[in-house]
Every structure is written in structure tokens, then in C-alpha cells.
Design a protein that fits this description.
296 residues, alpha/beta, Chemotaxis Receptor Methyltransferase Cher, domain 1, Rossmann fold, 2 domains, 7-stranded mixed sheet, 10 strands
Length: 296
Amino acid sequence: MTPVDYEYLRKLLKDRSGLMLSADKQYLVESRLMPLARKAGLPGISDLVQKMKAGSEPTIVRVVEAMTTNETFFFRDKVPFDHFRDTIMPAMIKARGQRRSLRIWSAACSTGQEPYSLAMCLKEMATAISGWRIEIIATDLSQEVLEKSRAGIFSQFEVQRGLPIQFLVKYFAQVGEMWQVSSDIRAMVQFRPLNLMQDFSALGTFDIVFCRNVLIYFDQPTKIGVFGRLAKSMEPDSFLVLGAAETVVGLTDAFRSYPDKRGLYQPTRDVVSPPLAPVLAAKAGVSALKFAAAPR
């Protein structure tokens, strides 16, 4: 791969997916794209680039998907799911008690472990949210990972990463050497293709947004743009959950940090006072719901 080819790929990846590659990441591109070139019957990455420059949209899509990082696992980092159970849901149960409905978005969901983890959390809260209409929308730009997500089939290695053993027994069925999420959990999640670089207003508004471990790959202007679009797609008293290495500080004033909760944010427009989570949790019957994440 020539320096000119690499620069072309860097620009294309940023424009198409927001992914920023530094000048020293050529080895990463080669390791991920050489198998793609061989599969297409091409001698090298330069030939792949030529097909892309010639306007082969299928090739461009495959390249972007091959370069996208799809690292994820069940109940990843544990803390966001503690926030979901102990702070977010008690607040939402109180705030949405009249309409009894919620919309949750898992952005850049990869192979589906995050939205399925949220669905299992909600199943554990069945008594507190009985009769509620709750939508979980999960999106990713990769059609390949969305197909895997919809199937809900995971390897032994994947279910051993973060998934509590009692949840494996309760919500999965063994299929040969694999494990499949139960049909009722799968039915709780709608998977849709979506690129965060593009307008996503058609998705509607949300009460809870998980957008974790994707913005770290974007440059500052791209992050600012995503935050602006996120703010417009969220209810005034909604919750935004970011990854441990992500923050809104110094990037946007559209969100403010939630007191004493790392990675948890709320919109700044018409934001209500922070709810008293322990009190609300006790009232809603949620605080007693506990799950143990697997050791890290």
C-alpha cells in the first residue's frame, strides 16, 4: 500500500464513519484489508483502493465495515448498567408514570451484547414496569454485525465475557456449541442500520441513550456534531450514557454531568432537578434488584 493509498483510505474512513486514523496506523489497515483483498481475488490493497476510486460502492462498504472496531461484551464495564438499574430506571419510572412508555437507544451496538444486556435488566424489573411499553432501538453502520445481532447467537467465549451465570441459565438456550438469546429477549430489541455521521432525526426522540466507546474514535468537530444531534433527539429529562473514556466536558454545553455518576449525563435544556435515586428506587421496588457481573 502506497502513502497515497493510505491517505485516501484515511480520508474515506473519516468521511464515511468518523473513524480517525493517525499516520502511524498503516499496519492496522493492512492487517484488516489484506484478507478483504484476497477474498475479492485481488493481489493487494492498492488494487482494492483502485476499485473504490472507480466507484465500487459495495467495496467501499466492505472496507468501512472491516475497519470498524466491533469490540463489545455483555454488561461491559458494569458501572453503566448499575446506573441503568439504580438511577436511570427509578427516575424514568417516576417521570414516565403517566404515559407508561420508554424509548431506549443503543447506538453503535456492534454484535448486540449491549442492547441484550439492557433487555435482561428490564426483564429483572418486570414487576416495577408491568404494563409499560418499552422500545429498545439498537443501531450500527455494519450490516454484518447487525445480522449477527438479530440472530442472537454467541460463542462460549462471548457468553463468558461479562454475562452473569444466572443470566446465561435464565435467558439463553444452548445450540450445539453456541448459545442463543431467548426469543422473548430478542423480541425486545429492534436492530436497524444507522451511521452516526448522518442525520438520525428519523429515529424519533429517546428517554435513554447509550452511546459508548464509539466517540473516542472521532475527532473533536465530529464529536461536537454528534452531541448536537443527540441533544435534539432526547427528551429534556432524559439520560445519556457515555463510555468511561468519553466526556462532554470541553466539547458541548448541550449536556451536563449527572452528580456523582461517572459517564452519566442529561440535556441542559429544561432539565429537572436530579431525582433522589435511592428514594425513588425504593418506591419503585427497583433498588433491591441486583445482578453480579462476572469478574474482570
